[in-house]
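fyi for ur records
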Amino acid sequence: MYRALLLALTAAATWPVIPPAIVHPWAPPATPYGPGHRGIDLAAPPGTPVRAAATGRVTFAGQVAGQGVLTITLPGTASPPLRTTYEPVQAQVTEGTEVTAGQIVATITDTPTHCPDGCLHWGLLRGDIYLNPLLLLHRATPSRLLPVVGVVEPG
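which gave:
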């Protein structure tokens, strides 16, 4: 069921910044409080417009630890619903606003980050579980064919 929901979302999902350039990939932690990267960073200098990756409702637009954060909850994605997060941003929408995929919802702020030229940290969560946001675009890790050991090839 979860996979079917994601497939339905991918038809309308879009990159939050254009052109997309991943500068730091998703690297989930081994433990809940362990080191890792709970989202992806997309190259984006201050002032870059940020688009909603999928249609949803703004459920948070404010400051967290001195950075602007925007959260959009995606309807029809089971319980608890999927949420996308964007930071550091200046929201151009308020809590409760319904947004569509591709709609400009924020701009990148000039807040110091670990990206020297600025970036958007884009996250995806279900409850308190972090997921790879590229799943929304159906562009997660590509499939790889591995060699089969011990099987004689025909011919």
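DSSP finds one helix and eleven strands in the chain. thats all i got for now
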